[in-house]
Amino acid sequence: MSTLPPCPKCQSAYTYEDGEQYVCPECGHEWSASEAPVAAVGDDVRVIKDAVGNVLQDGDSVTVIKDLKIKGSSLVVKVGTKVKNIRLTDGDHDIDCKIDGIGAMGLKSEFVKKL
Questions:
Q1: Which band of pLDDT confidence, cut at 50, 70 and 90, is reported for residue 44?
Q2: One Pfam family for this entry, by name (predicted)?
Q3: Torsion angle, alpha carbons of 60, 63, 69, 70, to 10
Q4: How many CB atoms lie within 10 A of CB 43?
Q5: Count of alpha carbons within 13 Å of 67, Cβ hemisphere only?
Q6: Exposed, middle or buried: residue 24 (CB in 10 Å: 0-12, 13-18, 19+)?
Q7: What are phi and psi of 31, to 5 degrees?
Q8: pTM beyond 0.70, yes or no
Q9: In angstroms, what is the C-alpha Rg of the chain?
Q10: Which domain holds residue 19?
Q11: Is the pLDDT of residue 64 over 70?
């Protein structure tokens, strides 16, 4: 049984061979078998995905998929609210953003969908 290398871009284990190329079905990255992996062995690469499995990156635009109550306030972020230019962070809330009418806040990636 042969073991294929994980994707060097998103670390997905679901890579497959297509001729002389390796292909990642999750992020669409293609690389040849002779290429050196982009991430070194000691790097801790964290992939943040939205509610439907799309990989998120800094600067993406997302939409909220669930009404979110804001703690300590009577404000609510409604379903369908569009958030532009997100920034990914480490921690419980993996997205830092600014929402019109509310201000700066942190969101969890499980409550957003990439546009």
A1: low
A2: YjdM
A3: 30
A4: 9
A5: 4
A6: buried
A7: -150, 155
A8: no
A9: 18
A10: 1-41
A11: yes
| CATH code for the domain in which residue 32 is found | 2.20.25.10
Confidence of residue 37 (pLDDT cuts 50, 70, 90): low
Q: Are residues 65 and 31 in the same domain?
A: no
Give the CATH number of the domain where residue 98 resides.
Answer: 2.30.30.40
**Helix or strand run (H / E) with residue 92:** none
Tokens of 45: 């690469």
Return all residues near 84 (Cβ < 8 A) that are at least 6 apart.
61, 97
φ and ψ at 110, to 5 degrees? -75, -10
> Does 93 map to a domain?
yes
Q: 68 and 37 in one domain?
A: no
Please identify which residue in the block is written with the tokens 């703690």: 71
Same domain, 37 and 65: no
Size of the chain in residues:
115
Higher model confidence: residue 100 or residue 36? 100
